[in-house]
Amino acid sequence: MRTKALLLTTAIGAVGIASSMAQAVYSVNIVGYVNKSLPPGLSMVANQLNATPNNKLTTLIPAPSAGLTVSKFNPVTGNFDSANYDPDNAVWSNDDLSLEPGQGAFVDNAGLVPMTVTFVGEVKLVSSIAIHPGLDIYSGAIPQAGTLDQLEFPTLTTGMSLFKFNGSGFDQFIFDADNAVWSPSIPRLEIAESCFIDSQASVTWSRNFPVGN
Fold it and tell me: Considering only the top CATH level, what class is 2-122?
């Protein structure tokens, strides 16, 4: 619990100016793109397309328009694995850091204006995200917005907390397993948005998204 509290406090302390916005266009032939607007400062993002040849930052965001830091939570250490982009030298400090569909990360835009990044790749029509007990960052594996039930989030039998970054802190949603209800409401995730989940048990988030249906 202390690690979680320190984590959330650290994230809040590094907050940026505004919340993130996303727009997406993707084709029915499975390949498409997602435009994600990153405000100055901190926001939480997700890559929801399989890029070629991989989902490393050097492929996903090869040349940001300003300095950018991407931080992925490491549940083993309780800290973040980070990569910094240096626009002067056009290089990432950690060229092995990746962002797979279903994962998420904090991004810190060092510029003074919003930055748009474009994720290009293949839609995962069939996906399975393993949510483990404890705290980690997750996202939907398909570029689709909606409430958790609309996104086919699994039916829960144990407690769970979900934290959405709002630009100045976190909005918390708690699932009460006894009454089978989310409080204050069922969470909604936008396209290219990720969130923290603190689960009491292992849960598998599976999607089967047939084209044309």
Answer: mainly beta
